Amino acid sequence: MLTTLHLLLPLISLMLRQVVSLSPIRNKNSVQAATEMTAVRTALDEMGADGSFNRKEAAWRNWISNEEGARFPPEKDRYHLYVANACPWAHRTLITRAIKGLQDVISVTIVMPVWQRTKPDDPEDHHCGWTFADPEGKPFANSIGLGGPFPASYPGNEPDPFLGAKNIREVYEKVGDKDGKYTVPILFDKKLKTIVSNESSEIVQMLNSEFNESSSAPELNLAPDELKEAMDEVDAWIYPNINNGVYRCGFAKSQQAYDGAIEDLTAAFDRLEELLSKQRYVAGDLFTLSDIRLFVTLLRFDEVYVVYFKTNTRAVMNSPTLLNYCREIYQMPGVADTVNMAQIKEHYYCSHPDLNKFSIIPKGPGFEKLLKEPHDRDTISQQAKKQKLDG
Ligand SMILES: N[C@@H](CCC(=O)N[C@@H](CS)C(=O)NCC(=O)O)C(=O)O
């Protein structure tokens, strides 16, 4: 008996090491988040006692790096993005990939827009999340059996090509993460079959700086040193009050939480309008990652957030400055191809029956059409022309 145990010990230790090496690798900042995360599976669980929405930190925070000996070196066709057309955070990775000309370097799978039960055979498990297209699947209703029918696949949304996962939760589970949240975007390593990162702010930095050897726009730096301070400064108020601000309005579960969020959002919207009437981009004269981050929220504002998240104190189409700012970005090479307004609307309006029981999709003002009209932003600054972003 003892001898058998003795023989088995190295095997057990090897298996344990295997499990550890498959687990999310968390940086210093995310250790605390990881310990707090067990009960939080989706955004709708992230509520404070006062009814306010508190977004949880992403758990997978590895870096692709050119440095020698890096675990994740920037090889062509080694990495993959799992994204949703609807998700603003995923959208910014798609825009950065397009603007940096990395379409042939990093592959993409786009999940279906409407959340579904991720363990439909387990009556105790009510989690709903992103699912992959199922070309053989039947149309379905929303997660409380109403609305729709929603098709089980669309052209352009494909099944999981690597792990055979049915949904994003299964992707996380297959790489050893059973805690959630099961979010997109995911930057996935096809070689080591693991997640590199699920934090969009860091993924876009990697796409900007680490793939220049295979990028078709290597000279374009979306986070230039001279603007880093300005970028940090604008991100510090735009993110909480606008990008996350719309969610703070929409997911608020008390009047008090909503009132605070809408006040912050409205003030930030006005501040933005003022800023962009004087300078071409949010951090100065050059287009940066901070503009991509802002654009994805402004793009969804009039069609979704104004109605669904009750952000109806302002609208982008009522602000010539912000509308023209959005037009310029929409018209940059490759950006319009990343916009799928139908899926953006289908996701938001049909994925949270708490907010829209019957999943009715409002007609909306046709915001995307407005973005195809000429913009006037070149009257604001000349220096930006040097960046060759005007298409
Ligand atoms: N920190 C993440 C946030 C990503 C995120 O919240 N994604 C949402 C979609 S917009 C998601 O996948 N949510 C899944 C859920 O709430 O269960 C990032 O910026 O990359």
TrEMBL record:
Protein name (record): GST C-terminal domain-containing protein
GST C-terminal domain location: 197-348
PROSITE patterns: GST_CTER
CDD domains in the record: GST_C_Omega_like
PANTHER family, sorted: GLUTATHIONE S-TRANSFERASE OMEGA-LIKE 1-RELATED (PTHR32419:SF6), GLUTATHIONYL-HYDROQUINONE REDUCTASE (PTHR32419)
Coiled-coil regions listed in the entry: none
This protein's UniProt keywords: Signal
Pfam families, alphabetized: GST_C_2, GST_N_2
Highest taxon of the lineage: Eukaryota
Signal peptide start and end residues: 1-21
